[in-house]
Amino acid sequence: xIFSPVIPTPRSxxxxxxxxxxxxxxxxxxxxxxxxRVAVAGLSPLFIGSGRAVVAAALxxxxxxxxxxxxxxxxxxxxxxxxxxxxxxxxPLLTSFALTSVPASHGAVVIALLPAATATAVVLRxxxxxxxxxxLATAAGAAAALGFAFAxxxxxxxxxxxxxxxxxAVVAAAIGYAExxxxxxxxxxxxxxxxxxxxxxxxxLLLAVWTMIQQPPSGTPAQWAAFAYLGVVSMFLGFxxxxxxxxxxxxxxxxxxxxxxxxxxxxxxxxLLGETLTPTTLIGGxxxxxxxxxxxxxxxxxxxxxxxx
Length: 309
Hints:
The structure is a single chain. By secondary structure, the chain is mostly helical. It has helices at 17-29, 32-39, 45-66, 75-98, 104-111, 114-125, 132-150, 161-187, 189-214, 221-248, 251-254, 261-273, 279-300. The chain has one domain (17-300).
């Protein structure tokens, strides 16, 4: 997964410490797309998308109970439902189904839109008025991702259903991350993710049980290991390092590390899965990442204060 640059106000800490924690989090999340590709080779995508959430929810509930976290109040539950719908339900399920038919490197390129999409969701959610450069960079990134999808061998000029699922996953996660970043200022970072996991657990458990009845899972040890990583690290433990890095800060610097995640995902796809990195993949990935980086940097750059009368 790729995470939002909108996180609670950072605390001061040892210089560089936040960057190292952020890098550890991004490194953990960079295996998500390749290992999802491994898991869907033998396990049902519905089981993977729902089952990994159930595993993470069990860990989250344990952490919340052991640390005696206070319960969210009132409207916070509705906002947690938005977070859960995006990052617990939407993103895992949509990417799991999409990666049954496209290479991991392909998925990483399209999902590279997420930093810019999240920044856009935050702008809309917070009623910000960014400069024109932000919208130009975001539009260019979307055009680059769509152009990459259209230009794939055997499907030039057509947008495949898997690309639509990946784009849907980007939208779902962007909304979830934007709302989660704002809510984390009230509940805490890992607490927000944990409550979202717990809130979505009944639905995801129902889906997991249903798909196990319909199609009993029978994967190889490697596929089960990939599934375990998705549930324990991608949806739970990775949050601890990432949000700790952002809390130590500087937040604006640490948040930029997420832009290397697609690069790492594409590299793991080549090294672990033996996928061939075509010129189209390399050029498309570079274009999307560059546009996302410009969009995030423009949004994070402080605006000049209005002149005093």
